[in-house]
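Quick one: structure for this chain?
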Amino acid sequence: MIPTFSPVIVIGGGIIGLSAAYHLARRGVGVALIEKADGPVQASVRNAGGIRAQCRSRPERQLAMASIELWRQLVVDTGQDFEYRQTGNLRMAIEPSTLVSLAGEGADEAADGLVTEVWDAADLRRRAPMLSRRFAGAKYCATDGQANPILATWTMLDAARRAGASILNRTEAVRIEVDAGRAVAIHVRSGGSEARIATETVVHAAGPWTAGLASEIGVTLPLTPARDAMFVTRRTEPMFAPFVSSHELGVYTRQTASGHVHVGAVSSVRGTYDQTVGRFEMERLARVTELIPELAALDVLRSWAGTLDLTPDHLPVIGTPAALAGYVLAAGFSGHGFCLGPIVGRTVAELIVDAKTSLDVDDLHPDRFTRADLA
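Got it. Here's what it folds into:
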């Protein structure tokens, strides 16, 4: 049943919106989440499941480190096994110059309290013999890991509902009502009829679909949709534990607890909501065999794609635009939203309940793309 009022309304039922609803409900705030589909069906469940803090820009690094702690806590709080494991993360280097850059990045990470190791070619042969011999080395972070994105996102949904959040699936936000510079209601469509839900605060976390409704209320977001393709192989014996990526090859991969191998591409097809995976993308994904040669013997079971929301600086948008009160944005995660979901949800709850955040998110403010001092 559609309520006539909810103190907070969250638009978007992916990992970001669900986490916001979960953390708000845990703090005693009445919250209703609206999702136009039957549940989480977009990028939150169509990603590689990587959960890492290494190899991030500094504004995201602290968020990722905190999010990893919350992922661990979510396992405890829910008692659910969504296959979260701290299996480590390997960022590969083909060229020696790339390894030097990774080592420099590791020094910056150490200053923030993140422990990483730089492995040379001999270390790789000893510690990761499945990898191609072409690599000069890698940077490894033991506290990074992975989870099953489908199980994890649905676990967050169940946790939000158990905490007291109202989850309204098959309910589409069609208009945000603004009065005197403040968001005051959401007009929704559900079951062929429309309704108005009055509110004190709107949390907009609809991924690449955020920009459309936002523009109607005068908030311009430079979000570019992009297709992110993946495939999964048949099961095989355990071959490797860490999440492994090579930006030089443009691929990343992980092996699940069940033995399937997931493969994704570092770069995306921009400017589209079309999720059809083409031959070019499959050929690019096949470059994973240059990373781990033994994967060439495995059959591909299926492929799929998710739709990302890219920002110009590849950093998310978190916060309230200066020109519009009662409206909190959490979008533009540029492929990093799954990992950051738990901490972003907590941060959104802090913005609403405490009017301040425990972690610095000033660099992620939605007005950064229009402020004169940053132009």
